[in-house]
Fold this protein.
Amino acid sequence: MKNLFIFGMILCLFSACLEKNDPKKLTNTKWELTELPGLTLPPSSKATLIFGDSLKVSGKSFCNSYGGKIEVKEQKISLKDIFSTRMFCQETDAAERAYMQAINQVTGAKITDSELQLLNGDKKLLVFKKFDQ
């Protein structure tokens, strides 16, 4: 029984370590949006999220370019000081507005080798796949 308890404690500790967000995992990575829950993505354009060094972010929100910075506090990730160009693209307007609204609501993230989920609490806002270019 004692061994089972110790095994359970080790398993819990290991699980907790996996949930912690390490901003170093994001440094110099590129992501392409694959899912914006509740919306069909436009086939003619892509949204991207690029994490540079020193916690800076940039990307394309279908039509416009944007940038800002990432903030990590108490293992929570958020995007701050987001700015964007303001071109109007009719065919991607709804997706553009939904994407930028979601980006500004991010309070956390789940990261695997090839997938990044941006969250607000437990709610999935955006899902990205990793790409190289």
Notes: Residues 1-19 have pLDDT under 50 and may be disordered. The first helix runs from residue 2 to 19.
